């Protein structure tokens, strides 16, 4: 690489320290442009011995500095982008893999992106291209510091024309890969991107970028251009179609190079050329199975999807005429995680208050003799720490990896991978760029040193193979589930209050947005027609007249197809003659229920479940009183972590409930003491039921406001609703949860 580029030592002119104070005016505030390619190989551009003509990138290298040991944080789309924008290993921010159109998570709003960092300094910000950090509105760029956004929310192959589904009829394809949307700001402007539309993406991103530069010529700005290409499927505009001698892949690279030239020209035209840092790099290495539709890792081993250098070492060029010496090379270890702290130093803005992993690499950018600020660099694949590098040494731990099986694919159709394995292996990356010579036996002291670094990394970031939980890991953002509380009729007159209480409790988790559907006060309401399919879970606070028959049919379909239902207290009195409802709730009371409805189900004094088919009405309770709840299933997500016994507040203790009880799991019981008028049995208090693909959580507690103020009730409702909505529980048991000896309340005041 050094044979291509002269090294000019200008350290006397450019200091190694970042400015400590915020610049006073526009002239002192450098602009930043980050061009981020998708699946670009290490040897795909001219400055890295690529064969495809890239005159504008060659110009960038001639006028700036190439970085030969610059790494992405993981060798896959979303993980890599999360690291770039947050300055953290993707494991720290819990963004792994490549988020698809069915993903319900994304970048957490508590994270701070580069855009949010520079916003502190009054910068204008924009993102034009592939985002891939969550496609729901709460995860999109404009909710994370960007003033403008235009692009695809995820990879351009996540559509009905994917090679894996092209043989299927369209109605079957879209079940796996729905149509690909194009988003402008927060709105979908093209719900069905076509192949013809994809030919214009690079041009559209470029035009938007140039317009943004021109509109902000007198303002400091941060521009992020994450190209959709050269990720497959490859598309190119007529401007470059057939122009290269390297097929459509070469055409695509030439168009990306043109895009870089347009950006550089716009900077010069607006007078921002000298004081703008332009960074060109990629998210990971080439997708080798696509053969002639993929790039080349050159001398590096393997490609995308591996922790070998072909997967993570990126061809990187930086240009900033006012600061970076022209025509120079940096061979020091650095990576995309370093851009956030470096840009913060450049712009005089504050770093996030939480821990980040990147380092300020301004000295590497501006000096000739600076050394890497990284003691070590981690190579994760998913949650597995597969390798670690320090200086010239890289140690691989035993792991599997994918490698091509036979010849690579052609024409946009991939070939197959096979799984290979490596044992513990040490490589000197200065002497052995291709990671071919394992020298672990010759350097046991280096192996031991890197193992020590790895253990530090595992303690902080975790490791799925060693089952180490990282102490510094933060959660990804989760899409808030939509919950619908159904109310309107109930023999318990405080139902308006309990609806408000439950709505508040669910919203407090940060996991739900809650709507309320209210029936007419009496009789069957013909206008009660909620669209249940808009919600992940329905919470029933209803005990009244039958719903209209079409509404009942839609609800059954909703549940059978994977809906969620939470049944609270008197809601299990409702619909005694509706077989599907009785099947959903497992057990119910009153409403004409008797032996024809199903058996009584309870636990005996030895802790065994009893199914009693004797005759008798369903539903009874004694006097209201505080009572103990005993956990029967300690491992269910809802009850896991709860005390084995906890004291509930004053409540009606429902007993003698009966019903089909099919596919039902009793999570907890309470003893209905005869001294208070109870049955003398251990009655079910927390239950789950599977109905088709749907999940039901049934909690017979919650009669009065005082009953629902119990922390045990609140937490059970919150965790049970999350489970019904998603099949998972992420909430922790709070410190104020009741114990066996002490009940604990959270007083609620109507607002």
Description:
The chain has 751 residues and is an alpha/beta fold. It folds into three domains: 38-375, Alkaline Phosphatase, subunit A (3-Layer(aba) Sandwich), CATH 3.40.720.10; 384-461, Arylsulfatase, C-terminal domain (2-Layer Sandwich); 480-726, Rossmann fold (3-Layer(aba) Sandwich), CATH 3.40.50. The chain contains 17 helices and 31 strands. The strands form seven sheets. Strands 8-7-6-5-9-1-10-11-2-12 form a ten-stranded mixed sheet. A nine-stranded mixed sheet has the order 22-21-23-24-31-30-29-27-28, sandwiched between helices. It starts with 30 loop residues before the first strand and ends in a 25-residue tail after the last helix.
Ends: how far apart?
68 Å
Portion of residues in beta strands equals 15-25%
Number of domains: 3
How would you write the strand order of the largest sheet? 8-7-6-5-9-1-10-11-2-12
Give the number of helices: 17
CATH class wording of the largest domain: Alpha Beta
CATH architecture of the largest domain: 3-Layer(aba) Sandwich
Mean pLDDT: 95
Which class best fits the helix and strand makeup?
Answer: alpha/beta
């Amino acid at each position: 690489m050094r044979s291509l580029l002269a090294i000019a030592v200008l350290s006397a002119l450019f200091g190694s320290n970042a400015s400590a104070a915020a610049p006073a005016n526009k002239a002192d505030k450098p602009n930043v442009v980050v061009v981020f390619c998708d699946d670009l190989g290490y040897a795909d551009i001219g400055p890295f011995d690529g064969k495809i003509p890239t005159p504008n990138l060659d110009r960038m290298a001639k006028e700036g500095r190439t970085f030969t040991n610059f790494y992405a944080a993981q060798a896959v789309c979303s993980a890599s982008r999360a690291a770039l924008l947050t300055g953290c290993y993707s494991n720290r921010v819990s963004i792994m893999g490549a988020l698809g159109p069915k993903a319900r998570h994304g970048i957490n709003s508590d994270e701070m992106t580069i855009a949010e960092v520079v916003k502190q300094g009054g910068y204008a910000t924009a993102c034009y291209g592939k985002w891939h950090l969550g496609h729901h509105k709460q995860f999109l760029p404009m909710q994370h510091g960007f003033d403008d956004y235009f692009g695809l929310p995820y990879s351009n192959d996540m559509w009905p024309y994917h090679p894996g589904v092209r043989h299927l009829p369209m109605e079957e394809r879209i079940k796996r890969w729905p149509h690909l949307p194009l988003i402008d700001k927060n709105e979908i402007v093209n719900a069905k991107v076509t192949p013809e539309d994809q030919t214009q993406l690079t041009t559209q991103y470029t035009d938007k970028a140039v317009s943004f530069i021109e509109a902000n010529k007198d303002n400091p700005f941060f521009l992020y251009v994450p190209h959709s290409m050269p990720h497959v499927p490859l598309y190119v505009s007529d401007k470059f179609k057939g122009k290269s001698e390297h097929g459509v892949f070469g055409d695509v690279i030439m168009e990306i190079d043109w895009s870089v030239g347009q950006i550089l020209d716009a900077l010069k035209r607006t007078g921002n050329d000298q004081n703008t840092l332009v960074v060109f790099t990629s998210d990971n290495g080439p997708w080798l199975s696509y053969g002639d539709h993929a790039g080349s890792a050159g001398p590096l081993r393997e490609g995308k999807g591996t922790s070998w250098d072909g997967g993570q070492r990126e061809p990187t060029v930086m240009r900033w005429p006012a600061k970076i010496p022209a025509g120079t090379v940096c061979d020091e270890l650095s990576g995309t995680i370093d851009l956030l702290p470096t840009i913060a130093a450049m712009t005089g803005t504050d770093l996030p208050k939480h821990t980040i992993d990147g380092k300020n690499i301004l000295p590497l950018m501006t000096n000739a003799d600076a050394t890497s600020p990284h003691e070590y660099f981690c190579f994760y694949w998913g949650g597995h720490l597969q390798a670690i590098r320090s200086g010239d040494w890289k140690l691989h731990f035993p792991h599997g990896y994918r490698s091509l099986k036979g010849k690579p694919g052609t024409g946009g159709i991939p070939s197959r991978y096979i799984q290979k394995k490596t044992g513990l292996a040490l490589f000197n990356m200065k002497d052995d760029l291709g990671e071919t010579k394992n020298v672990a036996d010759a350097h046991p002291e280096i192996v031991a040193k890197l193992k020590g670094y790895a253990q530090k990394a595992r303690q902080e970031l975790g490791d799925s193979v060693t089952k180490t939980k990282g102490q510094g890991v933060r959660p990804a953002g989760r899409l808030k589930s939509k919950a619908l509380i159904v109310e309107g009729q109930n023999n318990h007159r405080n139902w308006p209050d309990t609806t408000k209480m439950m709505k508040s409790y669910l919203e407090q988790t940060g996991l739900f947005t809650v709507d309320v559907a209210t029936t007419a006060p009496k009789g069957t309401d013909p206008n009660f027609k909620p669209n249940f399919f808009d919600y992940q879970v329905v919470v029933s606070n209803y005990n009244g007249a039958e719903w209209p028959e079409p509404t009942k049919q839609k609800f059954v379909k909703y549940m059978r197809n994977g809906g969620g239902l939470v049944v609270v207290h008197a809601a299990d009195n409702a619909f005694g003659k509706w077989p599907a409802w009785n099947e959903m709730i497992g057990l119910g009371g009153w409403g004409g229920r008797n032996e024809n409805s199903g058996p009584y189900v309870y636990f005996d004094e030895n802790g065994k479940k009893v199914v009693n088919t004797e005759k008798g009405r369903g539903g009874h309770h004694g006097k209201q009183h505080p009572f103990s709840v005993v956990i029967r299933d300690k491992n269910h997500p809802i009850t896991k972590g709860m005390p084995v016994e906890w004291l509930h507040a004053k409540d009606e203790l429902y007993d003698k409930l009966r019903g089909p009880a099919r596919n039902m799991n009793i999570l907890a019981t309470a003893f209905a003491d005869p001294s208070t008028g109870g049955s003398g049995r251990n009655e079910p208090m927390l239950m789950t039921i599977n109905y088709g693909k749907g999940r039901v959580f049934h909690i017979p507690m919650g009669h009065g406001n005082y009953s629902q103020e119990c922390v045990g009730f609140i937490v059970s409702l919150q965790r049970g609703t999350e489970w019904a909505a998603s099949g998972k529980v992420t909430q922790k048991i709070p410190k104020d949860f009741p114990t066996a000896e002490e009940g604990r309340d959270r007083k609620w005041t109507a607002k």
